Amino acid sequence: MVKESLAVAIVKIILGAALVSGMFAAGWNVYRRLPGESLATNIVATDSRAETRLTVMLRGEITGATLNSPVEIYPFDLAAAQREFQATPHLARQFDDFLLRRMHGVTPVKATTDDKGRAAAILSEGNCWLHATASLSDGETIEWRLPVNVAGREQTVELTLENAYERSKKF
Fold first, then answer.
1. Together in a domain, 71 and 126
2. Can you give the pTM of this predicted structure?
3. Co-location of 12 and 83 in the same domain
4. pLDDT at 127 over 60
5. How many domains does the chain have?
6. What tens digit of pLDDT does each residue of 23-50 get?
7. Does residue 120 fall inside a structural domain?
């Protein structure tokens, strides 16, 4: 009877160790598949997978404008969020409310502007959402919310009056 209890104890220890190592392996498998955070400063990449240099600039047709710093680039698929908003019953009254809830916890890459009014960041490939504002000398403010498909080694996004999200003026 002593041999039987010793054998049962050994089997329990082996099964317990197998259970703990299996749980650790499963957790590690989930952890390594999580998306990485691409936190970058003006031109410095902090994500080892970042390969694309994205430059944001105002087109020359917008005279007297200064690009407000920082330009925010969110690793978020804006087009997919718009499709989801249109396909589901409107739990939020406006898309902005829906977007605010969906982007909870998404950290933007902030690219500061240089002396020429350009902003640059090193990003990983994928779908992003760019948010920028510019101020005109007459007091008008222009806001951009653009979906950007980041791919390749270098990419430039030109901010124009045609792709602006909103133009406003304070009186």
1. yes
2. 0.62
3. no
4. yes
5. 2
6. 998 888 877 776 543 333 334 344 556 6
7. yes
